[in-house]
Design goal:
By secondary structure, the protein is mainly alpha-helical. The chain has a domain of 250 residues: Ribonucleotide Reductase, subunit A, CATH 1.10.620. Helices cover 58% and strands 0% of the residues. Helix 4 runs antiparallel to helix 10, helix 6 runs antiparallel to helix 7 and helix 8 runs antiparallel to helix 11. The longest helix has 31 residues. It is elongated, with a radius of gyration of 25 Å. The relative contact order is 0.10. Bound molecules: fe (ii) ion (FE2) (2 copies). One fe (ii) ion binds next to helix 10.
């Protein structure tokens, strides 16, 4: 007869007891008595959202200022047996370090608006383009493919440390990771779908990516990424018509823009929540943003970053100067929108910004 470990034998004995004597426990049926009787209701025809569950309040809906100390994955609101082991990994237990008041709604929206880079882009509408335009688009897509995944790696770096009681934040960050995977994927596809290919990587962009990945804590990383870097990208995508050469690219920019708008909205409201609870940290955020602003500004020094955009905006390599003029208008928009978002978050950088608001003509 096959020999099993003691644990496996215990289970077999337990199952035999149930079979032979009908001894069942059923104590779990009377667990968590104050949590019984919940009836969450959809707020509208969008269905039963994560936020609707929180409207119940009490042990399910109230998000604690400090995550429960048991350190397990036990879901918020259930009864946690005393022998539940701590996983020892959740050390971001303070709500102010990760929370944003819009995070549950943003998760609901993200789930509802997922799209497919395979199915939702009219790839069959791609037509051969003049060499300078195809090369400019392929270089832009090379750069975007290079930078998009930081916005997945950064949440992934922090997410597993966030207390399970803040599951709304973790769920939202999981959608952001999926969004960014799609962005990497769609820009790579565009570069490889119309007779071109990937062109040149960007050492200057790597410096910014490093600053985000090495930021000392979640909120500084989030300020650099969600508000500064993704904010600039959001304004760029919002003006995607300026760079797009056809319906394929217009659709790509439009769909990516929707996703980026959520990421930026979370980052802005997270910084607001954080600064309301920890106003003494404002100077630290100012100084990390100043370094980030300089790094973004320095990207212009890199021909593979600036020139392709100018060729696309101008409509050809022979109209690159016209393109640069359009880009400087876009740059001002990027800076103004960034400053506005910071103001909403409670951080006024209008007189402290480390880069010019307008570029000289
Ligand atoms: Fe993205
Ligand atoms: Fe993003």
């Amino acid at each position: 007869m096959q020999r099993f470990s003691q644990k496996v034998q215990e289970v077999l004995d337990y199952a035999a007891d149930i079979r032979n004597r009908g001894t069942v426990d059923l104590s779990w049926m009377s667990a968590n008595p104050t949590g019984w009787g919940a009836r969450a209701k959809p707020r509208d025809d969008r269905g039963l959202g994560l936020e609707d569950i929180n409207q119940i309040g009490g042990r399910y809906g109230a998000v604690p200022d400090y995550g429960d100390a048991h350190g397990s994955m036990a879901p918020r609101g259930c009864e946690v047996p005393a022998n539940t082991p701590s996983l020892g990994c959740y050390d971001i237990n303070d709500k102010s370090l990760v929370w944003a008041d819009n995070v549950a709604l943003l998760y609901d929206e993200a789930v509802a608006r997922q799209w497919s880079s395979a199915r939702d882009i009219p790839w069959d509408q791609l037509k051969p383009l003049p060499d300078d335009l195809e090369k400019a688009m392929c270089q832009l897509c090379t750069t975007l493919t290079e930078v998009e995944f930081i916005a997945a790696d950064m949440p992934a770096k922090w997410m597993w440390r966030i207390n399970h009681d803040f599951h709304e934040v973790k769920c939202f960050l999981a959608t952001q990771i999926a969004d960014e995977a799609r962005h990497l994927d769609v820009f790579r596809k565009r570069a490889l779908a119309n007779g071109g290919g990937l062109l040149k990587a960007s050492p200057a962009n790597e410096q910014i990516l490093r600053a985000i990945i090495e930021a000392p804590d979640y909120t500084t990383a989030s300020s650099l990424m969600h508000i500064l870097a993704e904010g600039f990208v959001l304004t760029l995508f919002r003006n995607g018509e300026m760079l797009a050469l056809n319906e394929v690219e217009k659709k790509i920019f439009r769909l990516c823009m929707q996703d980026e708008a959520r990421h930026v909205a979370y980052g802005t409201m997270h910084l607001k929540y954080f600064l309301e609870k920890r106003p003494e940290r404002a100077e630290q955020i100012h100084s990390i943003l100043a370094a980030g602003e300089e790094a973004i500004f320095a990207l212009t020094l890199e021909p593979q970053t600036a020139e392709p955009r100018a060729i696309l905006a101008g409509g050809g390599v022979d109209r690159i100067l016209e393109g640069f003029a359009k880009l400087s208008y876009l740059y001002t928009k990027q800076v103004r929108e960034y400053l506005h978002r910071l103001k909403v978050a409670g951080l006024d950088r209008s007189t402290r910004i480390a880069i010019p608001i307008e570029l000289p003509n």
